[in-house]
Design goal:
Elements (H helix, E strand, L loop, with lengths): L1 H19 L14 H13 L3 H9 L110 E2 L18 E2 L16
Parallel strand pairs: 1-2
Helix pairs in contact: 1-2
């Protein structure tokens, strides 16, 4: 029990640090870990990241909930988290390449320097997400919500943002070669000086 409490405190300490840096929006109230998530954190420390795959199967719940967990360096390429609640999940430096995240709730996730190459993120809610330096090469984000998302210095090569909602997103220093922004709403997007808003993007909304 003492060890469990220590792990819970460690997780909440990371979340608090993120909140203090202004990364996690005040629109999400700070939460403590429940019993299930506390056990998962303990299992991760004891057995490694792969234990998460079986844990998700064992839950037998229609909606997967990994919200508010701080799991830096998370390595689960190709995992299926479609429609999952991942709000405020922190996986800095992690590898979710090829992951299925279609329709996932990912508001204010922190995935700085993470590997999301080829990830399926269409329809995902990524408002206020922090993905600075992340690799999204070839990722699919069709119709995703990326409002106020931070993608500074991210690799967006050949990524598909068609129809995405990107109002107020930060793309300074991002690599955009071959990326598809057709129909993406990019009003107020911050982009590197000298870089032109991609062809087909919408930069002004009608009344």
């Amino acid at each position: 029990m003492k060890k469990d409490n220590m792990l819970i405190k460690q997780n909440n300490k990371i979340i608090n640090a993120v909140r203090e840096r202004g990364i996690v929006s005040s629109r999400i109230s700070l939460k403590k870990l429940g019993e299930k998530k506390s056990k998962l954190i303990k299992l991760i420390h004891e057995q490694g990241f792969e234990v998460i795959r079986q844990w998700l199967v064992d839950q037998g719940e229609p909606t997967i909930d990994l919200s508010w967990l701080a799991i830096p360096g998370l390595v689960l390429p190709g995992i299926d988290l479609s429609g999952a609640n991942l709000n405020a999940l922190s996986f800095t430096g992690g590898d979710l390449s090829g992951a299925k995240l279609t329709g996932a709730r990912m508001y204010a996730v922190v995935g700085t320097r993470s590997n999301l190459r080829g990830a399926l993120l269409s329809g995902a809610s990524l408002g206020a997400a922090v993905l600075s330096g992340a690799d999204l090469t070839g990722a699919k984000l069709v119709g995703a919500d990326l409002s106020a998302a931070i993608l500074t210095d991210a690799n967006l090569t050949n990524a598909n943002f068609a129809g995405a909602y990107m109002v107020g997103a930060y793309l300074v220093g991002a690599r955009l070669k071959g990326a598809n922004f057709a129909g993406a709403v990019m009003t107020g997007v911050r982009i590197s000086p000298g870089i032109i808003i991609p062809k087909g993007a919408i930069i002004e909304q009608g009344e």
